[in-house]
Design goal:
This protein is of the alpha/beta class. It contains 13 helices and nine strands. The strands form two sheets. A seven-stranded mixed β-sheet has the order 3-2-1-4-5-9-6, with helices on both faces. A two-stranded antiparallel ribbon has the order 7-8. It starts with a helix and ends with a strand.
Length: 257
């Protein structure tokens, strides 16, 4: 059973695909309608659906049946149960590969990148990932320090690039993704200007670093955040962040070509 069989039961309610992420993906792909794209770790299919609506043909690859059950069906999307380390597609069968905020869940990164390369004809791989070492340490990590600690377990971006290049023989371009203040996809740092959203259990449930941590400690930190928002302590210390419209907290697109 994948972690998302247990934590992803209401995933589609808070992890709503953001149009700016889709726009960046399509711009980086720079490919015509009708091409075949493999979405690795497709989750509930939100990003697959938006791409399918633009005329692309999508293979949505996802191991969790709970996640797949929340998907909206579309004639341009074919669902396949599988892992990044063993993608259930033939060699040279797609024109592009995408994977949005998933590679930190892969058990064997080397094998996953080899598989992405195997199924790709001659096109591009687009990843959205993060390196917390590139981020400024915002208020979020003062209240929930394990988010920072958990993110440090992921490979540094330079090591990730070396791993990709070694296993795909392709070039890698790194594109910073500054998080807008109003992201609809509520991943870990997405609500950086909306601290009240972290008080909502359904929002935390859609963030794996919350879901797999000690719930009693989480509750105590949530209570502290709630109190500080109520008594003005949060605003007194962090109000400057409310003046920002976007922020760099380490998220990066990788274009592999």
């Amino acid at each position: 059973m994948t972690i998302y069989d247990s934590i992803g039961k209401k995933y589609s309610t808070t992890r709503v695909p953001d149009y700016r992420i889709v726009k960046t993906i399509t711009n980086l792909l720079n490919l015509p309608e009708g091409i075949k794209i493999a979405d690795i770790g497709a989750g509930t299919g939100g990003y697959s659906l938006l791409l399918a609506n633009q005329g692309f043909n999508i293979y949505a690859i996802e191991p969790s049946s709970i996640m797949q059950s929340q998907a909206i069906q579309h004639p341009n999307i074919k669902w396949k149960t599988g892992y990044a380390e063993a993608i259930p597609l033939p060699d040279d069968s797609v024109d592009a590969v995408i994977s949005v905020l998933t590679i930190h869940h892969f058990s064997r990164l080397k094998k996953a990148f080899q598989e992405m390369h195997r199924i790709l004809k001659s096109g591009t791989i687009i990843l959205l990932t993060f390196d917390i070492r590139l981020a400024q340490k915002i208020w979020l990590y003062d209240y929930f320090p394990w988010l920072w600690e958990d993110a440090l377990l992921s490979l540094p971006i330079n090591e990730l690039i070396n791993l990709i290049q070694t296993n795909t023989k392709k070039n890698v371009e790194v594109i910073p993704f500054l998080l807008p203040h109003d992201l609809s996809d509520l991943f870990a740092a997405a609500a950086w200007r909306r601290p009240e959203l972290y008080l909502r259990p359904e929002v935390r449930a859609g963030i794996s670093s919350f879901a797999k941590f000690d719930q009693s400690i989480i509750e105590s930190r949530v209570n502290l955040l709630a109190a500080d928002l109520s008594n003005g302590a949060w605003n007194a210390k962090y109000k400057e962040i409310l003046n920002l419209t976007e922020i760099d907290v380490g998220y990066r697109f990788l274009r592999i070509f």
